[in-house]
Amino acid sequence: MTEYVKIIYGDKTIELPVITGTEGEKAVDISTLRRKTGLITLDPGYTNTGSCLSTITFMDGEKGILRYRGIPVDQLAEHSTFVETAYLLINGALPKRKELETFSGLLNDQSLVHEDMQNFYQNFPRASHPMGILSSMVGAMRSFYPALQIAEEEINITTTRLISKIRTMAAMSYKISRGHKVVYPRPDLSYCANFLNMMFDTPVKPYHIDGDIVRALNVFWILHADHEQNCSTTAVRVVGSGRVNLYASISAGIAALWGPLHGGANQAVIEMLQNMEKNGLSANDVIEKAKGKETSFRLMGFGHRVYKTYDPRAKIIKKMCDKVLSKLNIQDPLLALAKELEEAALKDNYFVEHDLYPNVDFYSGIILRALGIPTNMFTVMFAIGRLPGWIAQWKESMEDPDWKISRPRQVYMGKPERDYKPIDER
Ligand code: SDX
Fold it and tell me: How far is CA 315 from its chain centroid?
């Protein structure tokens, strides 16, 4: 039975239908509001506004629940691989063995990057941020891989091409930035093992593939694979809504993720911890600064628009830190600092009252440091993980019969009408 919301405005009383989601979430459908009342809604940052109906990811911010296509993320982290989770997000169900073999085969076939694209890297200034390079390279892919004739085949090939090549391009960018020889993908290595090998193998010191480290990278990317309508996914959907190709939409998503309030936070957390270590700052020094309004400084890796409790991904990553560091026999002083900061923040009234908890970015940098990933590539690692989610969300919007070009309204607060004045009269 449909529920309704009644709006009384002036001499008008209208009813708007309430939509109920799978898990009982309620939304007022305001698509007829302006036509019936002349009113629009205003919601900066879209805190209270849903942009779409989606079947991909479910989050419950109060209970700290995250599920991909109905499967809890902790089960996927325990039992799945990143490639299998990517298939699940994009196709809606876990693959059968044959389907997984075909998908993995396509990823292998698509793992090389056009040789001419290597020239691009040579011309970026050496100090360029890897996220800027990645966004440019993905946008440039359209020029190297024009549309196929058959739409369905185009999407499937483009999907595996992007997922496979983003990993190769990231490793290539790292090697070239260091003046090292590019390492090519190998057909005998898994998706994650190939990435690590392309990053760290050198002619004089072959990279040792450690199963536990490959497993940690799979889990890291599984945990980053999707997160419903976050900033960068919204960018992918908005850019895609103009019916532009997938590469351009993903390039926009990478740019949006770069921001320190979003995916760039994993790099900002490590820089915050390094600053604490370098300047001998205590956890309370940092927390007091984060609470103050004198600066825009915030406790990076803390807080979330949706989670008002511990981010379920942060719990898993925090546990993984201890496992990976002990496996690699690494004592990272920043981990101890991070734990000290978390403990102090979770006891602080301001953080408790504002429901501020560690999010996915708070501990992820510790793992990436242990793997040998340079700090300025941390958000690239986030982007590689998020790519299957972006693709799934883009695909869902393209296939949505009710999907329109994204074009929000506004409330004009500028000058009333006035005439043009010749320059000598101003
Ligand atoms: C990601 O959306 C997603 O799902 C994103 C993500 C994904 O997987 O895609 O989960 C990935 O981006 C995680 C978030 C990474 N960013 C950070 O860690 C940066 C630090 N966090 C904050 O900037 C903030 O918490 C946000 C941006 C994450 C969320 O901000 P909101 O929801 O817009 O909340 P807000 O800025 O309106 O803050 C509400 C209050 C404010 O205080 P008052 O003005 O009400 O007194 O909480 C305070 C804020 O000042 N606050 C913080 C804080 N986060 C919020 N104060 C200090 N430190 C913080 N980290």
Answer: 18
- Residue 5's beta-bridge partner residues? 16
Cβ–Cβ under 8 Å, residues 16 and 4: yes
Q: Which domains does the chain have, with CATH numbers?
A: 3-50 (2.20.28.60), 65-226+248-253 (1.10.580.10)
How buried is 379 (Cβ within 10 angstroms: 0-12 exposed, 13-18 middle, 19+ buried)? buried
Q: How far apart are CA 352 and CA 145, in angstroms?
A: 50
User: What is the 8-class DSSP label of residue 67?
Assistant: E
Query: How far from 426 is each of 410, 420, 423, CA to CA, in Å?
Result: 29, 10, 5
Please return the burial class of 199, using the count of CB atoms within 10 Å of its CB with bins 0-12, 13-18 and 19+: buried
What are 17's strand-pairing partners? 4
* CA 62 / ligand 1 centre spacing (Å): 15
**Any ligand 1 atom below 6 A from CB of 225:** no
Residue with tokens 């989670």: 307
Alpha carbon dihedral 62, 68, 72, 73, in 10-degree steps, equals: -90
Dihedral pair phi/psi, residue 311, rounded to 5°: -60, 120
Q: Which of 234, 171, 220 is nearest to 199 (CA)?
A: 171
CB-based burial label for 416 (10 Å; 0-12, 13-18, 19+): exposed
Strand partners, 66: 59
The Å distance, Cα 297 to ligand 1 centre, comes to 11
pLDDT in tens, 360-410: 999 999 999 999 999 999 999 999 999 999 999 999 999 999 889 999 999
Distance 44 CA to ligand 1 centre (A): 14
How large is the average pLDDT for residues 244-263?
96
* Cα 284 → chain centroid: 30
Catalytic residue among 201, 304, 311, 332: 304
Assign 11 to helix, strand or coil: coil
The pTM of the full predicted model, rounded to 2 decimals, is: 0.97
136: phi then psi, degrees, rounded to nearest 5: -65, -45
